[in-house]
Amino acid sequence: MPREVTRTETTVCKRVHTKVPLVVxxxxxxxxxxxxxxxxxxxxxxxxxxxxxxxxxxxxxGTLKLPEDDPVAFTKLALWMYEKKIDGLNILTYAxxxxxxxxxxxxxxxYLADKLQFTALLDETMLQxxxxxxxxxxxxxxxxxxxxxxxxxxxxxxxRDFVTRTLAQxxxxxxxxKKNPGCQTLLEDHPGFAAEQFCAVAEFLxxxxxxxxxxxxxxxxxxxxxx
Length: 227
What we know:
A 3-stranded mixed sheet has the order 2-1-3. The protein has helices at about 5-10, 40-45, 45-55, 55-60, 70-85, 95-115, 120-130, 140, 145-150, 160-170, 175-180, 180-190, 190-205, 210-225; strands spanning about 20-25, 30-35, 65. α2 (about 40-45) packs across α3, α10 (about 160-170) crosses α13 and α10 (about 160-170) packs antiparallel against α14 (about 210-225). By secondary structure, the chain is mostly helical. The radius of gyration is 19 Å and the shape is elongated.
């Protein structure tokens, strides 16, 4: 379950000049309301530029609905438009459950930034996600999110690449799949993941294990530079 949008976050998202033309974004099934500057949205996102500066009805009535999206993730996106930064992993220790929640939160922001074509935010979010292989417990943190990642991203996604490279060390262990029977179902239900994961395992077995985690992060950064 996504957490509630806090009062502080809602207030910060309304920090706009009264004379700036605003548009209304209604997010999620309960239509959480965001009033944001049209110009800032259009400058930040090709998606919003097409919606509010094109010939669609949203350009006329100034309202757009995103019923399938997460209001908490959209709040982070709106804050990023003003501050051009997102909160990362800024302390040294987390419980596994906390790490999983933070990873899920970054994934939700990644999906939204990808969908709404916030290229700079997408890159920054991916760099934050790439830090998760430093913290240990990757199989407990990342593996529960794999199905949704493959449902919400496309072939060649940097997020998919990071996940398969990070999990390769586990899939390469003898009998690991037998100890984790849920993974067999995951592989059967997501053949794209199965194919990409076992390619990553093959690469892992040819690489020096000590350099693999650094290689996963380096690959993400290299792909960000190419965008």
